Amino acid sequence: MTDARYPQIKPTSGYGDPRIRSTGPGPGAGGETDPERSSMLSGRLALVLSILVGQLWAIGVGLNAWMMGNTAVAWWAAAFGVASFLVALWAWRLGERRDR
């Protein structure tokens, strides 16, 4: 007498056995099932990524201005970077509250 759970299925049968239809967690596993939440996350991500692109642009402009000796523009670019970071943080935190 064997104490295997399914003694008629050999442990090496694998994919060739017709009684085994699928291996894995099933369809849709790991995907977002709520379309409203998914669209909200996508919108928030698009907003934060666009702010990130703006920050990269501001770093380039500010560094160029600093190297040319125009410190006023460099400080405005730095302030823009800090402000856009705070806006991105605010947008992420605001959406996080609604997620729960």
TrEMBL record:
Pfam families, per the entry: DUF6755 (PF20540)
Disordered: annotated span: 1-38
Keyword annotations: Membrane, Transmembrane, Transmembrane helix
Transmembrane segments: 45-67, 73-92
Protein name listed in UniProt: DUF6755 family protein
Provenance organism: Catellatospora aurea
Lineage: Bacteria, Bacillati, Actinomycetota, Actinomycetes, Micromonosporales
